[in-house]
From TrEMBL:
Segments crossing the lipid bilayer: 65-83, 88-106, 137-155, 167-195, 207-227, 337-354, 361-381, 387-407
Family annotation (Pfam families): PMT_2
Top-level taxon of origin: Bacteria
Primary location: membrane
Listed name of the protein: Glycosyltransferase RgtA/B/C/D-like domain-containing protein
Keywords: Cell membrane, Glycosyltransferase, Membrane, Transferase, Transmembrane, Transmembrane helix
GO CC aspect terms: plasma membrane
InterPro entries the record matches: LipidA_mod_glycosyltrf_83, RgtA/B/C-like
Residue ranges annotated for the Glycosyltransferase RgtA/B/C/D-like domain, each copy included: 73-226
Molecular function GO labels: pentosyltransferase activity
Membrane topology note: Multi-pass membrane protein
PANTHER family associated with the record: MANNOSYLTRANSFERASE YKCB-RELATED, MEMBRANE PROTEIN
Length: 414
């Protein structure tokens, strides 16, 4: 673990400066690039408007659905309900998620790796171009990141306080919120528990009881939506109906690994019918050549990390309007260069951690585990560069270890 003589009060001042920097960068971006929904943003906006105006989640007021998880549109609708349907509400929600994520990264970095890792992790996230570009995008990424980090913070607090049950209930609530945004969060408590046991941190029974309490909390909070879905579709649907479609997109004879339109032959079928058919086809395709599936999954893992341009594409209309083609190219190049720099820094962090703690400890480290968890799940299904976004805070944490190691080394030799 990295340790430092850096005064904690100075770190607190540094955190305030980082928050100020992060806020200024995002406000400047928002002032330059107005919100102009494209692609998925149009869907989230439509769903939120239908929730506000008709009390229905779906593409049309008279057709409730659950193809996408409800969380993002529900948060947006809540903001619209309180403040009115204004674009600054989206900016405010995105800013809040980003700034809260910075604060929690500061705390998690210090907890996982010691001071001043938290300060460096917070700074890397504050400067991350994609998270800045997301300020003017209606999307799930910042909300999901924030809820996962909140859940992790509460999970860790439960290990070192007398209010263990309350912190675990709070962790369950946060992970439930993340699951409403992206269901991939549902399994996180299980993997967190497994890796804690492998690290030998707690007794197996204690770990299982902690996990059970968190999972029950998640289940209780998700149950109302699952019941709503059962009423709509006449069959169990926990959160959303798009798993079959996403699984098929990444596993069919014509797959590129990324998004594909659904086949026309499914027109007229219900969401659940489409999901069941496509899931069956994907499973059959995999079973016919499991070796190809493994190769395809590995390639998708690489494809998922090969660039970082989604922020530019989802702001494309306004970027082209303000800065033209050259500006659009720059808005893709800058995030991608930063992305590769952070991957390199994270690799350096992994090497430094292995040297200090061993290879096994590195594999079981929580930030490494969650990065691998996100990558593995999406590589099995469907990928694009946007799907590595949930890994960003954990890459920041790993990279922060490299910076903290270098910082402490120079302080000792200086």
């Amino acid at each position: 673990m990295v340790d430092s003589s850096l005064d904690f009060r100075k770190q607190q001042h540094a955190l305030l400066a980082i928050l100020g920097l992060g806020l200024i960068l995002r406000l400047v971006w928002a002032a330059l690039i107005p919100i102009d929904p494209l692609s998925d943003s149009v869907a989230y906006q439509t769903f939120a408007e239908n929730i506000i105006n008709h009390g229905v989640y779906g593409w049309e007021p008279d057709k409730p659905g659950a193809y996408w998880a409800v969380g993002t549109s529900a948060l947006l609708a809540a903001g619209y309900h309180v403040f009115g349907m204004h674009s600054w509400v989206v900016i405010g929600l995105n800013l809040s998620a980003s700034l809260l994520s910075i604060i929690i990264l500061f705390n998690l970095g210090n907890r996982y790796f010691g001071r001043p890792s938290g300060m460096f992790a917070a700074l890397l996230f504050a400067l991350w171009p994609l998270t800045i570009q997301y300020t003017t995008i209606i999307a799930s990424e910042l909300f999901f990141i924030c809820f996962v980090l909140i859940g992790l913070y509460f999970w860790e607090r439960a290990k070192s306080t007398t209010y263990t049950v309350l912190w675990l209930l709070a962790a369950g609530a946060a992970f439930a919120g993340a699951s409403y945004i992206r269901p991939i969060a549902l399994l996180l408590p299980i993997f967190l528990t497994l890796f804690e046991v492998l690290r030998g941190e707690t007794r197996i029974l204690n770990s299982l009881l902690r996990m059970l309490l968190v999972l029950v909390t998640i289940g209780v909070l998700i149950a109302p939506w699952s019941y709503r879905n059962y009423q709509v579709f006449g069959k169990p649907v926990m959160i959303s109906t798009n798993f079959g479609a996403n699984f098929w997109m990444g596993n069919n004879p014509n797959t590129s690994g990324g998004y594909q339109p659904l086949p026309d032959r499914l027109d007229g079928l219900s969401e659940t019918e489409k999901s069941d058919i496509l899931l069956g086809e994907a499973k059959e395709f995999i079973s016919e050549n499991p070796t190809a599936f493994l190769k395809r999954t590995a390639l998708k893992a690489v494809q998922m990390h090969n660039r970082e341009t989604i922020g530019a594409h989802w702001n494309k209309t306004q970027i082209l309007s303000k800065w033209g083609e050259t500006g659009f190219k720059i808005s893709k190049i800058v995030p991608t260069v930063y992305w590769y720099a952070m991957l390199a820094l994270a690799l350096a962090g992994l090497v430094a951690f292995v040297r200090a703690n061993g290879f096994w400890a590195m594999l079981l480290c929580t930030p490494v585990m969650i990065w691998g968890y996100v990558t593995s799940l999406h590589s099995i299904i469907v990928v694009s560069d946007r799907y590595h976004s949930p890994s960003i805070p954990f890459i920041c944490l790993i990279a922060s270890y490299a910076l903290a190691t270098l910082y402490n080394s120079r302080r000792r030799t200086g």
